[in-house]
Amino acid sequence: MAKKKQEGYLSAREARRISRENRRITNGFEKQRKRKNVPEEEYLTRMHDANNSVEFDDLHTYFFTDAGTVKAVDGVSFDVPIGKTVGVVGESGCGKSVTSLSLMQLLQRPQGQVVSGQIRLNLGDKAYDVTKAPNEVLQKLRGNYVSMIFQEPMTALNPVFRIGEQINEVIELHDGEGKSAEDIKGRTIELLKMVGIANSEGVYSMFPHELSGGMRQRVVIAMALACNPKVIIADEPTTALDVTIQAQILDILRQLKDRINSSIMFITHDLGVIAEMADYVVVMYAGRIVEKGTADDIFHHPAHPYTIGLMASKPVVGKKIDKLYSIPGKVPNPINMPNYCYFKDRCEMCVEGCEGAYPEMISLSDTHKVSCYRYYGKEGE
Ligand SMILES: Nc1ncnc2c1ncn2[C@@H]1O[C@H](COP(=O)(O)OP(=O)(O)OP(=O)(O)O)[C@@H](O)[C@H]1O
Ligand SMILES: [Mg+2]
Questions:
Q1: pLDDT tens, 180-224?
Q2: Which of 23, 90, 166, 245 qualifies as a cystine partner to 94, CB 3.0-4.6 A?
Q3: What is the atom index within ligand 1 of the atom nearest the CA of 96?
Q4: 155 Cα–ligand 1 center, Å
Q5: Nearest alpha carbon, ligand 1 atom 16
Q6: What atom in ligand 1 is closest to the CA of residue 107?
Q7: What's the CA-to-centroid distance between 155 and ligand 2, angstroms?
Q8: Within 6 Å (CB) of ligand 1, which residues are found?
């Protein structure tokens, strides 16, 4: 029995118990969320630094599944400064998308819930904790303050509506007050031009399947930018594209960011893209941040063995090698995390102490932080 459990098998009785317990927990969260007329004081908060547009503070986002609780994001803290790009990197499944979906409050519910922590969103004159804001308020924040460019443009677009109608709808819903149909159409055409679509009038009345992948991705970007959001989340926006189109899309994003001075949270596992786009980099591993710093800190002075491994597994132009480095082993099972450093079993640089509790975040400099025993006693050097 004990052995079976270790291998991930559950008895029917155990599964029933888990799902009953899950329902109790998620019902509690849902009840809280569905309340009407929640007073603003409940979700009003203060930014710790007014120069940040978003502050993630000890965020815990769990999925209560029938196989157990997946701690997809487990104590993540980082800031997204106004007008800057923060790159979020890490292996598949480490919680990058779940972090961004927590900010948008678009988690798959009821099983996906922010169980603790804050996400402070700077609205200029005030700040909201989006994890406590009720649905009706979130609806206004999405699109106007925070918007998301999704990974797969074909699933983000509705195949049975024309491109123009879909962008018009976004403007109508979020920013349509006092605007005539003509105004809205004008804005849509302007957006299509802005993302570099030459035949914008023509594309306006086309269906998604009539466009190429690169054009669709541009449409999705146009949609995300329709209401000049303060924060743009780009979740692997160029993964599905070839490199030339990718370079063009990155250019467009950079120009747009400068034009409307918004912040970008850029999620990718492509370190080359991060090097080109990001001012700050956050490295995630198994639901936690293992290292964060400026792009220079991370690219020129990587400290965590995982970051060092990621850097070593990146091809370098002009350097001839037989085989690219790959980090051995795999990410631990998120339902059953060890009680020591999550990277220890794959780490080739362990030191004394690594078998102890999960390491704390250590400051190597004002900007550079790492969570690793190798740097204990070396703070601020
Ligand atoms: N709806 C869900 N139900 C249960 N578990 C989920 C759900 N969505 C995500 N997870 C789990 O949360 C963890 C983090 O997933 P996430 O999508 O954030 O990974 P990611 O870092 O974005 O990976 P990728 O680079 O592949 O996009 C994974 O272990 C995943 O299995
Ligand atoms: Mg993802």
A1: 889 999 999 999 988 888 899 999 999 999 998 888 888 998 898
A2: 90
A3: 21
A4: 17
A5: 95
A6: 1
A7: 14
A8: 63, 65, 70, 72, 90, 92-98, 108, 111-112, 269, 334
Overall pTM surpassing 0.85 (yes/no): yes
The predicted pLDDT at position 114 comes to: 96
CA distance 215 to 170: 18
Nearest-angstrom CA–CA distance, 252 and 195: 6
Closest listed residue to residue 334, CA positions, set 35, 54, 58, 67: 67
pLDDT digits (tens, 9 = 90+) for 78-126: 999 999 999 999 888 899 999 999 999 999 989 999 999 999 999 989 9
**Ligand 1 atom nearest to 94, measured from its CA:** 21
- For 258, the token pair is 């400068």
SS (H, E, C) the chain: CHHHHHCCCCCHHHHHHHHHHHHHHHHHHHHHHHCCCCCHHHCEECCCCCCEEEEEEEEEEEEEECCEEEEEEEEEEEEEECCCEEEEECCCCCCHHHHHHHHHCCCCCCCEEEEEEEEEEECCCCEEECCCCCHHHHHHHHHHCEEEECCCHHHHCCCCCCHHHHHHHHHHHHHCCCCCHHHHHHHHHHHHHHCCCCCHHHHHCCCHHHCCHHHHHHHHHHHHCCCCCCEEEEECCCCCCCHHHHHHHHHHHHHHHHHHCCEEEEECCCHHHHHHHCCEEEEEECCEEEEEEEHHHHHHCCCCHHHHHHHHCCCCCCCCCCCCCCCCCCCCCCCCCCCCCCCHHHCCCCCCCCCCCCCCCEECCCCCEECCHHHCCCCCC
Whole-number Å distance, alpha carbon 276 to ligand 2 midpoint, is 20
Output Rg (C-alpha) for the chain, integer angstroms.
Answer: 22
Contact assessment for residue 184 and residue 172, using Cβ atoms and an 8 Å cutoff: yes
Gap from CA of 357 to ligand 1 centroid (Å): 25
